[in-house]
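TL;DR need structure tokens for one chain.
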Amino acid sequence: MKQDVAAVEIRGILPANNGVAVFVGNDEKVFVIQVEANMGAVIGMFLRDTVKERPLTHDLFVHLLTAFGISVERVVITELKNSTYYARLILQQQNELGRKIVELDARPSDCLALATAQKRPIYVTRSLLDQVEDMSEYLARMSESGGESAA
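>> reply
TL;DR here they are.
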């Protein structure tokens, strides 16, 4: 991916009417990605390093990748079209034949879960970061009132 990107992290999670609001950003700007309630719970569990009795789907996916010598390299949230965010999952396979990078279209919620589970970097395209509304002030108010925050 040759686009200019900015490093971001998950700054907070807040239950919302239709799922969960995941606050993603950096010191420059924070924006919100709405995800399904179960995905918000999964992301939160990975953020808190919650020990799970049995593997979740994302754990299974990572175990499968690892078994084939593939790792999550990074994720990039790329664009917003018709109120839907898009993302790319960048995977790397290293073996005796060499190194291979594969880039896959994926839901941002899955990308955030996998990146969080594997402690891998999260990026957002500069064009998307310029486009989204800054929610830093809302996140600060939420943190002050005792809402869940990753920061």
